[in-house]
């Protein structure tokens, strides 16, 4: 049966919350269809034990075939191309209706090239999403991001657990050892139009710790955060949705720049603060993001 094309991701599509779940867990898949997450990541990699890999792959493909995910984008995280499961995972995902394939431990441009090749026969709308989680990747961020415009690559997810493991660093709630990479990764992603999501917070029972970490990610400029538990979805959406005060300011800036007396001006006064044309652009973007979120109901 031919594969129906999937609509390409529109600009500013909300990706506030991306929930991972082991594709071997049927209950979790059923639950994900009911949760308000923007993205579901069916994992074949670290969350699945070696003995369950083949079964998880079959379950993930069946789940996307069955559908029922509504507005949620569905990605399948493959095992690395050099593992014993990688080639079979990529072939199966390439023939599936998944919106994206998420690939682990991308370290250099050659890695992206190999995944592109493996996805040669996939629908043209299937996106390539990459985990940034190796020490080597940290030094190749700019080059990897620069491949996006001419490839399927469109989104990065930070893999802070793997980074901590490789660095032998401690992943504490303040994330001090990782802060330089987080901001460098955001800057590299922005330079080439790549969407970028923050790493997971392992503390899924303590939502105060989670919220503080999500706010730190927002402050760094991430579009959203990757998640491991249903309880994290709503607080994450709340953090990554434009707030009322920011929206009110954005609307005031748009309105002020629309006034006849402000035509042709680059900098004006809005509610006692300076607003420049760059703030007008930011304001328009914020309102557009809020509208996309509101469409989700
Ligand atoms: N997605 C969807 N549903 C999930 C889920 C997830 N990530 N994690 C848990 N659930 C479901 C459970 O199936 C359970 O459903 P039920 O009430 O119908 O039985 C419910 O939510 C409550 O689960 P809970 O008992 O609180 O969690 P747990 O102790 O069973 O599992 C984890 C904890 C961390 C093992 C589990 O949340 C998980 O597997 N997370 C994802 C791990 C992952 O994918 N890692 C890879 C990326 S880092
Ligand atoms: Mg990882």
Note down, in words, how this protein is organized:
By secondary structure, the protein is α/β, with parallel strands linked by helices. The protein folds into two domains: 223 residues, TIM Barrel; 52 residues, no CATH class. It is 42% helix and 16% strand. The chain contains twelve helices and ten strands. The strands form two sheets. It has an eight-stranded parallel beta barrel with strand order 1-2-3-4-5-6-7-8, surrounded by seven helices. A two-stranded antiparallel ribbon has the order 9-10. Helix 2 links the parallel strand 2 and strand 3. Helix 9 packs parallel to helix 10 and helix 11 packs across helix 12. It starts with 16 loop residues before the first strand and ends with a helix. The N terminus is likely disordered. Bound molecules: coenzyme A and magnesium ion. InterPro entries: Aldolase/citrate-lyase_domain (IPR005000), Citrate_lyase_beta/mcl1/mcl2 (IPR011206), Pyrv/PenolPyrv_kinase-like_dom (IPR015813), Pyrv_kinase-like_dom_sf (IPR040442). This is CoA ester lyase.
């Amino acid at each position: 049966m031919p594969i129906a094309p999937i609509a390409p991701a529109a600009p500013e599509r909300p990706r506030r919350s991306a929930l991972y779940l082991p594709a071997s867990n049927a209950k979790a898949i059923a639950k994900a269809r009911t949760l308000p997450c923007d993205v579901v990541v069916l994992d074949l990699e670290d969350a699945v034990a070696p003995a369950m890999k083949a079964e998880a792959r079959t379950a993930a493909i069946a789940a996307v075939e069955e559908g029922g995910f509504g507005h949620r984008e569905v990605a399948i995280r493959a095992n690395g191309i050099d593992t014993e499961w990688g080639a079979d995972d990529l072939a199966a995902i390439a023939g599936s209706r998944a919106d994206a394939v998420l690939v682990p431990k991308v370290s250099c441009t050659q890695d992206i090239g190999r995944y592109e090749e493996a996805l040669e026969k996939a629908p043209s709308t299937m996106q390539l999403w990459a985990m940034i989680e190796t020490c080597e990747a940290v030094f190749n961020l700019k080059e990897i991001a620069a491949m996006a415009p001419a490839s399927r690559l469109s989104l990065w997810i930070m893999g802070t657990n793997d980074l901590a493991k490789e660095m032998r660093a401690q992943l504490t709630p303040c994330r001090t050892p990782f802060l330089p990479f987080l901001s460098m990764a955001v800057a590299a992603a922005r330079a080439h139009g790549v969407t970028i999501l923050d790493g997971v917070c392992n503390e899924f029972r303590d939502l105060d710790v989670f919220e503080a970490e999500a706010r730190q990610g927002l402050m760094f400029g991430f579009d959203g955060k990757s998640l491991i538990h249903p309880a994290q979805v709503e607080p994450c959406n709340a953090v990554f949705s434009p707030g009322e005060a920011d929206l009110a300011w954005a609307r005031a800036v748009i309105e002020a720049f629309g006034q006849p007396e402000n035509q042709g001006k680059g900098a004006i006064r809005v509610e006692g603060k300076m607003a420049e044309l760059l703030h007008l652009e930011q304001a328009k973007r914020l309102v557009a993001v809020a509208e996309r979120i509101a469409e989700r109901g």
